[in-house]
Specification:
about 240 residues
Length: about 240
């Protein structure tokens, strides 16, 4: 991957995206597309990129598991007395953000307290971690088996957000598990980081026009490594 910006559109709508993909040079050579689960995007490029396969971005998928855990945290937190609630908020908010391998010794001790005092929340944490673990699997077959085992372990009538996540995976099954078919591990991490820089630049400029934001994005040092070469017209003999 070159991590280069090729272009930037004014709006994320079919009216803007379809003409872009229709007129894209060498569009039959595009092999992989990585995006979130927003269906209009796939519907926009689908008719024009005949050889492209979609990979749904890993981070958008696992973020739903973190959101499901956060939903459980809020349920239990709201049932506590105010003093207890403040203490719990400080000690367990990070459960939605960190993997066990990145916990500090103090955080590991806090997790032990959560396991002994709020069993349902600890269980939700384990479901979140087990879902993240699907992406730790080395190949597609193991990942699919890990998801099946995770789904089958969900208790009936509890953790509705995790059940909703399971349904979402089934609704996007092929595109999610295409992650293991790609020649490299495709994610939108670079794009998401760039989106953050664009938002910061727009705030600093107090509302730049689209043309200025696009120019600043396409020709910034971090964006033009290969993208500028791709935008040049082909050489003639």
């Amino acid at each position: 991957a070159t991590n280069s910006v090729f272009d930037m559109l004014e709006e994320k709508t079919k009216a803007h995206m379809k003409p872009f993909f229709r007129d894209l040079p060498d569009r039959d050579r595009v092999e992989w597309v990585c995006t979130d689960m927003w269906r209009p995007f796939k519907e926009s490029y689908g008719p024009y990129l005949p050889n492209a396969r979609l990979v749904i971005d890993k981070f958008h998928v696992v973020r739903m598991a973190s959101d499901a855990l956060e939903d459980e945290r809020k349920k239990h937190q709201s049932a506590l007395e105010r003093n207890e609630r403040l203490k719990v908020k400080k000690s367990i908010r990070w459960l939605t953000l960190k993997r066990p391998s990145s916990l500090s010794p103090q955080e590991e001790e806090a997790l032990k307290l959560v396991r002994s005092g709020i069993a349902l929340l600890a269980e939700a944490y384990d479901f979140k971690e087990a879902f993240y673990g699907i992406y730790d699997e080395p190949d597609k077959a193991n990942a699919m088996r890990a998801f099946e085992a995770w789904e089958n372990s969900l208790p009936e009538g509890r953790f509705p957000k995790f059940h909703a996540l399971a349904r979402t995976v089934h609704n996007n099954y092929e595109d999610i598990f295409a992650y293991w078919d790609a020649p490299v591990r495709l994610t939108n991490a670079y794009t998401e980081g760039l989106n953050g820089l664009v938002k910061v630049a727009n705030r600093m400029g107090r509302g730049y026009s689209y043309e200025i934001i696009r120019a600043k994005t396409l020709y910034a040092k971090h964006a033009r490594k290969v993208g500028s070469l791709l935008r040049q017209p082909p050489a003639t003999a």
